[in-house]
């Protein structure tokens, strides 16, 4: 089987250089939101190619590379299931295939996406204990430890940890938290939707049971694919699960993937794009990708602070390397900042969500983003602040 990289052409690589900021237009602004993220030139090119049969030999070759590449991205030997869905689909799959109605779980809540796990758990009949913190704060290892130590009867079956909370820009201390969960024995379910490929992440070394991510984030391809790494304890839990469901069913999907296939019709363009994106990422290297995101975070945080603004997450130690949430100046609306940057600089930044809507703006620095892009968004912000209003 041909396992060669899909990127053979040095010109294509040059076009994907991260030193050149891709320009947008006010109608189609350059995305500095925390997903969907900008697309490298080679990814855009493959999305324009003719259709491919999803059961063809050629496509199987692509899937073989993609499945191996996903294990590399997750740093795991476990199967990484790939679903045609958004990441929320993989979240539901993780619950449905490992837990039964009435099971107790703990969800660490620190924003919109971590709370989604708790809401979803309740919708599936799980008994959910939420450990919540105010917006902008990380969850603490101590509060998790207190709840798990009190559970002497080992009734808690799973703990959900959100690594990078995209709604606030918080980065939780995942490695330390996972150790506490391991000591208790509950399944450790991790939302790595905006941390994977932006922050050091080791599924196997940290012994994580279920890890979820999605295509439109660090993977640098459009929405449409969800990924779920399933470890040995999660497979044991699957065996005890009474209603694992159909579409996201672990066994059906694993069986198909073992044959370099998918259980159901996949989003073929996204799979081709993922093949190319993984090849680009493997050439950059995981450490280099993590370091680039770390640098971008520092550049953005230092930049907005130099402009007199403050970040929602005060401590860099707990700040996401994918997204930074910033308070607007007093008396200035978030919508006026976003509109100015879009109209004058052709860049999109995100509003806050739910109770943070209109109170913060979020700059995404995830995926195919360079320091030139970060400079441009900071320049746009500076120009906005200097305008006479
Ligand atoms: C941390 C986190 N979890 C879950 C999700 C849900 O992903 P999706 O919108 O792909 O379903 C998102 C989306 O932004 C996210 O940022």
What does this structure look like?
The model is unreliable at 9-14 (pLDDT under 50). The protein has two domains: 11-45 and 285-386, Aspartate Aminotransferase, domain 1 (Alpha-Beta Complex); 50-281, Type I PLP-dependent aspartate aminotransferase-like (Major domain) (Aspartate Aminotransferase, domain 2). By secondary structure, it is an alpha/beta fold. The longest helix is centred in the last third of the chain and has 21 residues, at 286-306. It is 41% helix and 15% strand. It starts with 9 loop residues before the first helix and ends with a helix. It is globular and about 65 Å long. It has helices at residues 10-15, 41-47, 57-74, 87-98, 112-123, 141-150, 174-184, 232-239, 250-258, 268-284, 286-306, 334-345, 371-386; strands at residues 30-31, 80-84, 104-109, 127-132, 156-162, 164-165, 170-171, 187-191, 210-214, 225-230, 323-326, 347-348, 350-351, 361-364. The strands form four sheets. It has a seven-stranded mixed sheet, with helices on both faces. A three-stranded antiparallel sheet has the order 11-14-13, covered by helices on one side. A two-stranded parallel ribbon has the order 1-12. The structure holds pyridoxal-5'-phosphate. Pyridoxal-5'-phosphate binds at residues 35, 86-88, 113, 162, 166, 191, 193-194, 214.
């Amino acid at each position: 089987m041909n396992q060669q990289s899909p990127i053979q052409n040095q010109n294509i690589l040059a076009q994907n250089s991260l030193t050149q900021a891709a320009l947008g237009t006010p109608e189609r602004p350059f995305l500095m939101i925390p997903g969907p993220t900008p697309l490298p030139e080679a990814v855009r090119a493959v999305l324009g190619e003719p259709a491919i049969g999803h059961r063809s030999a050629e496509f199987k070759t692509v899937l073989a590379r993609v499945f191996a590449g996903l294990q590399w991205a997750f740093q795991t030997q476990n199967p990484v299931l790939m679903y045609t869905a958004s990441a929320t689909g993989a979240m539901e799959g993780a619950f449905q295939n490992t837990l039964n109605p009435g099971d107790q779980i703990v969800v660490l809540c620190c924003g919109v996406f971590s709370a989604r796990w708790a809401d979803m758990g309740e919708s599936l009949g799980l008994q959910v204990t939420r450990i919540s913190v105010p917006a902008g704060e990380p969850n603490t290892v101590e509060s998790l430890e207190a709840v798990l130590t009190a559970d002497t009867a080992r009734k808690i079956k799973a703990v959900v940890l959100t690594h990078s909370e995209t709604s606030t820009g918080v980065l939780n201390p995942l490695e330390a938290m996972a150790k506490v969960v391991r000591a208790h024995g509950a399944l450790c379910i991790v939302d790595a939707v905006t941390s994977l490929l932006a922050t050091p992440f080791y599924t196997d070394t940290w012994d994580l049971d279920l890890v979820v991510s999605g295509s439109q984030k660090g993977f640098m391809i459009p929405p449409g694919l969800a990924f779920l790494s399933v470890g040995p304890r999660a497979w044991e839990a699957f065996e005890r699960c009474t209603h694992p469901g159909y579409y996201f069913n672990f066994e059906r999907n694993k069986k198909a993937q073992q044959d370099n296939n998918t259980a159901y019709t996949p989003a073929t363009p996204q799979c081709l794009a993922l093949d190319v994106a993984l090849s680009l990422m493997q050439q950059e290297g995981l450490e280099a990708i993590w370091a680039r995101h770390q640098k971008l975070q520092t550049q953005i945080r230092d930049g907005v602070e130099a402009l007199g603004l403050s970040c929602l997450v005060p401590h860099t130690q707990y700040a996401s390397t994918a997204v930074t949430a910033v308070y607007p100046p007093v008396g200035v609306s978030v919508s006026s900042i976003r509109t100015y940057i879009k109209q004058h600089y052709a860049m999109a930044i995100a509003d806050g969500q739910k109770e943070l809507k209109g109170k913060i703006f979020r700059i995404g620095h995830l995926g195919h983003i360079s320091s030139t892009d970060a400079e441009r968004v900071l320049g746009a912000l500076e120009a906005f602040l200097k305008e006479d209003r």
